[in-house]
Design brief:
By secondary structure, this protein is mainly alpha-helical.
Length: 212
């Protein structure tokens, strides 16, 4: 992939796409289980992903809007990791996670990351998203360096590896959430028998984004 294309695709985080039929099949296979344990990721990593997904998309109980946990987003991310990621993508995701976990350990000596409070995780996550335009451009340039056809994970510096991990996790969380049946039918506007399609109208005229 050339540098220009890489930068255009940087918003995908760890940089993968998934064909729609395979994606929805993956979503439908996600089941809610008590005491869920990741099937593909390491158990501790799965627990941290669970906490981060909940942090990124918590439920809004006053508006009866489900959160990421309510629609099995962590299960989806685990399946995506195990069944979609190629070796390079999986390795870079793991390296970013490990760097993030070490950063937590350095900030909270003696504490287990699986028992981290939401506020503790939030304080580590926010700086990677609250960045200036110049910082974003610099990040895009660094991430683009790792876009290649090799199966070997790219050795990003610590902060870039964490950014890559968090951006990819955020995008998978949002993608899985918005594409879930519960959110599609109960949160977004939904019409099982759509009529005329108008692709360019103000959001104020339709109230909410549409799932169908």
């Amino acid at each position: 992939m050339d540098r220009r294309s890489a930068i255009k695709n940087i918003s995908l985080g760890v940089g993968y796409t998934l064909a729609a039929p395979a994606f929805f099949s993956l979503l439908q296979s996600c089941k809610s289980e008590p005491n869920w344990v990741a099937a593909y990721m390491e158990p501790i990593q799965g627990k941290v992903i669970y906490k981060l997904a909940e942090l990124m998309l918590p439920p809004l109980e006053d508006k009866k809007i489900p959160g990421a946990i309510d629609v099995n987003v962590p299960q989806f991310i685990d399946l995506f990791y195990g069944e979609v990621f190629n070796p390079k993508a999986k390795g870079e995701f793991d390296l970013g996670y490990q760097a993030f976990a070490k950063k937590y350990a350095d900030a909270h000596p003696g504490n287990e990351i699986t028992k981290a409070e939401a506020e503790e995780l939030d304080s580590l996550v926010k700086p990677y998203f609250n960045i200036t335009l110049e910082q974003r451009k610099a990040l895009e340039e660094k991430l683009a360096e790792g876009y290649n056809d090799s199966d070997v994970p790219y050795a990003y510096d610590t902060d870039t590896a964490i950014s890559n991990f968090l951006i990819g996790l955020r995008n998978m969380t949002i993608y899985g959430y918005r594409s879930s049946e519960k959110v599609g039918k109960e949160v977004l506007s939904y019409d099982p028998i759509p009529g005329v399609y108008n692709g360019c109208i103000p959001l104020s005229e339709v109230g909410r984004p549409w799932s169908l």
